[in-house]
């Protein structure tokens, strides 16, 4: 059997998920990012699901709501600026929570 | 909720701007409290940057040991060369500007900010980390302190130095409305480890010398954008910023732009065999948005001053982004020292901050190389 040798010389991460895996987070039990689901439901572009550098936002078609993976938030504040309808509210994570 | 009222000035955010203000204030014996939301002052949103000796060493006098000239602040490498890369779809041009002055340094901000913090503490400033300021306390139309999750802190003046993503600025009413997507660049940065020998070979550097490079990526990405490379001691920081409105309209994730950059024939050989160690994201104001012209942002109110990124006093295209922020911290401290002499912390006295800030935008840098390079940046970006 030919054993596939893992290319150990190159460990450059490519995807957002691979990069987030390298970061130490200390997530709170509740989200510091909140949205108005009524607005998100009507939003056609769902821009936040594309531009967030940590892929925090995902649209769940089954539940018809926006899922917020706040645990991975890089705390840049892009989301409140990028949402065309002002649906996203950003607060800093509570004391000592968030990215460490 | 416990109340603490033993400082004259509260500074929210322990970045270069806030700590510069803290140091100047503490040096004159003003009781200063710095609140920082991260545990270790770890500057989570940027990893690497360039620090110019001027004006920092005037504020942080221990920056170098005056008896032997040794630099005491933790730095990665001297900036030996400034380099500009102009990237096309599948080709590139570059040029170097040699810096023989040893007057600027590549720093990793986590270590560097920790050093600034210790120096501010030595001067007498009190620092509390792991504490997020949630809102301003306003009584009788005057800012009189800040609230955290568990405490209230009172002071004569509050300086907001939270950076561009400033929650307090919005809640205080100093900023009316959100920044718009065509007013900001969104940055992503990756830290890639490589041995110091490999870095020196690939960039043609002597030990302890480094490169600060700007990447003009407009033609490559087809969007207003700017990238950068800093060679740290044994890692490379590679980042790119894109005009946010363009990114939204094209439906692209900023990480895709960073990956495209990493695959470019100019960049790929520089990072090959490296290991990604970290990733971060932050925003900077676009150059068209000069805070003094931005009517929706006020830099002061009764008992409150904005500095650094929170005041949008940051020049995105300059080679040393933090210099203006540091100078704005110093200007705020000088304003408060004057207010203390008059025992008046109202907007009327704090308004003296404005001419000081406006001057910052007027004064050319003391370094001819940087002036030339900054002019180059502006002209190339205006050509589109």
Tags for this model:
heterodimer, A: 100 residues, alpha+beta, Alpha-Beta Plaits, 4 helices, globular, disordered N terminus, B: 384 residues, alpha/beta, FAD/NAD(P)-binding domain, D-Amino Acid Oxidase, Chain A, domain 2, 2 domains, 9-stranded mixed beta sheet, 6-stranded mixed beta sheet, 13 helices, 19 strands, 32% helix
Mean pLDDT of chain A: 89
In terms of DSSP E residues, the strand content of chain B is: 25-35%
From the coordinates shown, what is the CATH architecture of the largest domain in chain B? 3-Layer(bba) Sandwich
Distance, first to last CA of chain B? 54 Å
CATH architecture of chain A: 2-Layer Sandwich
Number of strands of chain B: 19
What quaternary form is this? heterodimer
Radius of gyration of chain B: 21 Å
Question: Under the CATH scheme, which class of chain A?
Answer: Alpha Beta
Low-confidence runs of at least 5 consecutive residues of chain B = none
- CATH topology type of chain A: Alpha-Beta Plaits
Regions of chain A with pLDDT < 50 over 5+ consecutive residues?
1-9
Strand fraction of chain A: 15-25%
Instruction: Indicate the mean pLDDT of chain B.
Output: 90
Number of helices in the DSSP assignment of chain B: 13
What level of helicity do the residues of chain B show?
25-40%
